[in-house]
Design a protein that fits this description.
198 residues, 13 strands, alpha+beta
Length: 198
């Protein structure tokens, strides 16, 4: 499977609900919005390490979305700087966050270009994806200068016509002035930094 091609073709499909969230300058947001117990500077490598860990353990790094203990990751296959695997987890529904549904994602980590692709699946190894919301593809990636990395995130929900409710959910998410929860988790769990939001 060419994960990047799947996302790019879906992005151009009429009727899908496609959202490109604003880039997040991680170090700028840390400086402006957080009090830390010690100085820390993210590099592109640090931010990519977070992305790779999050891809493998979404219930650890996205506890506000993924039900604790629900994530299953199948073994990785590595080739030409790429790492492919499938993961299944129970995630909050985007437009109805009090409810959870099973999400199947075929993942590709492009370590050389620091891009992570998540392609929706409907069935895998006896698991079936929820039908309570549209299937969706995601790309998380790292951009920017080495010592001024940007956290990028785009999502394509496979709707037949643009869904305003879903657009509103992600618009609100993009307006959050703080770092995304997975970066905060990485700060604490991996870098050992305590913080307080200003």
């Amino acid at each position: 499977m060419d994960h990047e091609k799947v996302l790019d073709e879906a992005w151009r499909t009429p009727g899908v609900t496609a959202i490109d969230l604003p880039p997040v300058d991680v170090n700028q947001v840390l400086a402006e919005r957080y009090e830390l117990d010690r100085d820390v500077t993210f590099t592109r490598e640090t931010l990519w390490d977070m992305e790779a860990r999050k891809a493998a353990a979404p219930d650890v790094y996205i506890p506000t979305v993924v039900k604790a203990g629900s994530a299953i990751k199948w073994p990785s296959v590595r080739h030409d700087g790429l790492e492919d695997f499938t993961r299944v987890s129970d995630q909050r529904l985007w437009a109805d966050p009090d409810r959870f549904g099973t999400i199947i994602e075929h993942v590709r980590l492009d370590h050389g270009n620091q891009r992570a692709f998540f392609v929706a699946g409907t069935e895998f190894e006896g698991h079936r994806a929820t039908t309570e919301q549209p299937l969706f593809h995601v790309e998380h990636s790292v951009a920017g200068a080495r010592d001024r990395p940007l956290n990028l995130w785009r999502i394509i929900l496979l709707t037949e016509q643009v869904d305003q409710r879903l657009l509103d959910v992600f618009t609100a998410m993009g307006e959050d002035p703080y770092l995304r929860v997975f970066i905060e988790v990485y700060l604490e769990k991996v870098l050992g930094v305590s913080f307080r939001r200003k």
